[in-house]
Amino acid sequence: MRKNWFWPVFLIASAVILVVSQLGLFTFRVSAWSLFLTLILIAALISSLRYLNMPGVVFALAFLAIIYAQPLGITKLVPWTILSAALLLSIGLGLLIRPRYRYHHHDHYHHHNHGDDNTSTGTISDDHVNLDLSLGNSIRYVHSDHFSSANLNVSMAGAKIYFDDVDIQENQAIINVDVSLGSLELYLPKTWQVQDSLSNSMGHISFEGSPTTVGPRITLSGSVSLGELRIIYI
User: Fold this and answer.
1) CB within 8 A of 191, min separation 6: which ones?
2) Which helix or strand (DSSP H or E) is residue 195 part of?
3) Would you list the DSSP string of 63-76?
4) How many other CB atoms sit within 10 Å of the CB of residue 121?
5) Do the Cβ atoms of 126 and 108 come closer than 8 Å?
6) Which of 150, 153, 178, 152 minimizes the C-alpha distance to 166?
7) pLDDT single digits (tens) 147-205
């Protein structure tokens, strides 16, 4: 599991910037609320850059420009000119640059949208699942006779992943999660024995239900940053 160093370093740096700004050592003052929003937006920016999610990158930069319009000298452009430009840029860049992993298993993945609640649902038939979800609500059903691993990345989104139609032949598997500014619900068979190796940075992790005492061993690793992860045994 990779070391989650970003949030500790960033929070310490943010505290220093807040104190220094209130001492009047900067040419402009940064309020605690502006600093908090900056923290959220930069986290979203980094996560979006990681997966080449162009709408996330553009709108994170746009909102940062709105917050710091005065020191940047662009007060005449906020908010509608910047937001309109961000919309056009995100559409254009989104057509040119496709996000990483977003249809990695395209030939196994069937997707459709529910127009009434803007929630996308789909099934994934693969022993090694790579899934990246952002900016929306999603439900995924995993089907596998030899499930081995899953990499689940959720950024600024809400997702529910069901593993109740999965068989594990080797008696062990790994599920790696990366939740940032979003929520993820994992529905696992109650016969799975989950070993928690998660890193939590200003997030919330909960387990619901009672697993049995025997069954395949699942290693749950990764990180939750300013988000929520719920593990529900069914």
Assistant:
1) 211, 212, 214, 215, 216
2) strand 193-201
3) HHHHHTHHHHT-GG
4) 15
5) yes
6) 150
7) 999 999 888 788 999 998 888 878 899 999 988 878 899 999 999 999 888 888 777 88
